[in-house]
Amino acid sequence: MSKLDLKTLRPGTRMIRAAAYTDIVVQSHIPPIYQTVNFEYADAEQGLDIFQGKKSGYIYTRDGNPTTDLFVNMVALLEEGEAGIATASGMAAISNAILPFVNPGDEIVSSSAIYGGTRNWFTEHLQRFNITVRFVDITDLDAVRVAITDKTKILYTEVVGNPNLVVADIAALGKIARSAQKLFIVDNTFTPPPVMYPLRYGADIVVHSATKYIGGHGDIIGGVIVTSLEKMQLIGKTLSKFGGVMSPFNAWLAIRGLKTMNLRLERHCDNAMRLAEYLSKHPKVAQVFYPGLPQHPFHKVAAAQLHGYGGMMAFEVKGGLDAGKTVMNNVRVCSFVVSLGEIDTLIMHPASTSHVSLTPQEREAIGVTDGMIRLSVGIENIEDLIGDLEQALAKV
Ligand SMILES: Cc1ncc(COP(=O)(O)O)c(C=O)c1O
Fold first, then answer.
1. 184 - beta bridge partners?
2. Residue pair 215/101 in contact by the 8 Å Cβ criterion
3. How far is the CA of 328 from the centre of ligand 1 (A)?
4. Could you read off the pLDDT of 256-266 as tens digits, one per residue?
5. Ligand 1 center to residue 333 CA distance, Å?
6. Which residue is closest in CA terms to ligand 1's atom 10?
7. How far apart are CA 378 and CA 311, in angstroms?
8. Is residue 351 predicted with pLDDT exceeding 90?
9. Is the overall model pTM greater than 0.85, yes or no?
10. Which of 123, 141, 294, 302 is deepest in the core (most CB within 10 A)?
11. d(C-alpha 242, C-alpha 296), whole Å
12. How far is the CA of 374 from the centre of ligand 1 (A)?
């Protein structure tokens, strides 16, 4: 397209065209944010070539954007997958990883120890489309084999699941999925690389809530899917029309998060281990749930497949609901919020928050005891974290 002399235009048009004509190409050390909806074509031929796929290029940010592409390429590189796609949230990653591969009448076999939002989407939303999810104890491999039928399309699990930090044997599950020819989807939100590489162990698709460790600072909601190029093309078509794509600004923040994630995870893992060891010897603590502890029921599988044991843990304070509330009301370094994977230590008391609508018996049945406290251990100095819990537990 030929350019006009801007001075011939009236002020309103002049400002709009001046911004459009600016070709800012500088040697930026940090990749810029392509905060744009559209990508412009030099002429009709270039537009035609890009639309027909003869030349590579961007068209519209819902279908692709250089900043989000940089982010997904980084995650694909990290997860050792062929391709990735960025989504507006972790839930958008999960739904878009599943939807292209199921039809009414199909079934999914899922771990029962999964994030409540995912469980809700499975039971209340997928069910409406006649897609049935069968929940199993993912650590019972025979139960998994029995639950898989001809109708099953997907085996779904998280690596480390709430509330008791059960650890799925991804290698064994990968073999089961492969021999039954089912798609194996793993939510790796709690244990991003280098802690866990699900694709190495037979996962077909890995999903993340980038809201957590990838972003790392509690300032973005986002998600990402990593898989083969072939599956990604299918997922990309679904995502483009369901529309839950990541914003370029969030992708830019997620890129920044990825640069320090390895370092942060080392500290998350070290701090969680130290805190678990401290709490397991505390007289007011009945039980500690952390896969790094030798007494944890799934320590062996965690030791074999994880590199570090992650930053998530839970413990049960003696004295039930009141004792749990006392700890919550007295911590001063830990923050009382529901999310996880951020640089600061986040504390949650399920019995008085997320699971308050259930009876104590119902909570007990899913492993949430009244004195249970969940910690997403941050990267602070460990002495301050131990000191904070020490003084809070002293008030019980
Ligand atoms: C394991 C896991 N997966 C997925 C999600 C959903 O992520 P988002 O909140 O980014 O949609 C969460 C949220 O807590 C989660 O814990």
1. 155
2. no
3. 23
4. 999 999 999 99
5. 24
6. 90
7. 7
8. no
9. yes
10. 302
11. 41
12. 15
Sheet containing 83-87: give its strands across: 83-87, 223-227, 205-209, 183-187, 152-158, 107-111, 132-136
Does CATH number 3.90.1150.10 belong to domain 261-394? yes
Ligand 1 centre from 38 Cα, in Å? 30
User: And the tokens for 3?
Assistant: 């350019």
Distance CA 122, CA 128 (A): 9
* 160 CB-near residues (< 8 Å, 6+ apart): 166, 167, 168, 190, 191, 291, 302, 310, 312
Per-residue pLDDT at 26 exceeds 90: no
Q: What are the structural domain ranges in the chain?
A: 61-257, 261-394
Q: What is the CA radius of gyration of the chain?
A: 24
Between the CA of 296 and the centroid of ligand 1 the distance, in Å, is 24
Q: Yes or no: say if 110 and 133 are a contact pair by the CB < 8 Å rule.
A: yes
Q: Give the residue, by CA position, lying nearest to ligand 1 atom 9.
A: 90
The domain made up of 61-257 has a fold known as Aspartate Aminotransferase; domain 2 (3.40.640)
| CA-wise closest residue to 243 among 50, 60, 71, 106 | 60
Digit-coded pLDDT (tens) for 113-171: 999 899 999 999 999 999 999 999 999 999 999 999 999 999 999 999 987 899 999 99
Q: Whose CA is nearest to atom 2 of ligand 1?
A: 115
Residue bearing the CA closest to ligand 1, atom 6: 90
Q: Write out pLDDT tens, residues 169-227.
A: 999 999 999 999 999 999 999 999 999 999 999 999 999 999 999 999 999 999 999 99
Q: Three-state SS for 35? A: coil
Q: What separation in angstroms does the CA of 218 have from each of 99, 196, 254, 335, 346? A: 28, 22, 11, 12, 11
The number of the ligand 1 atom at minimal distance from the alpha carbon of 221 is 10
Which of 110, 211, 246, 250 is the best mutation target for the ligand 1 pocket, counting ligand atoms within 8 Å of the beta carbon and taking the most?
A: 211
Please answer whether residues 335 and 346 qualify as being in contact, where contact means their C-beta atoms are separated by less than 8 angstroms. Answer: yes
Pocket of ligand 1 (CB under 6 A): 89-91, 115, 117-118, 158, 187, 189-190, 209, 211, 221, 223
Q: Say which residues have a Cβ less than 8 Å from residue 65's Cβ, sequence separation at least 6.
A: 34, 36, 58, 248, 251
Nearest CA to ligand 1 atom 16: 115
State CA 342 to chain mean position distance.
Answer: 12
Residue 93 CA, closest ligand 1 atom number: 11
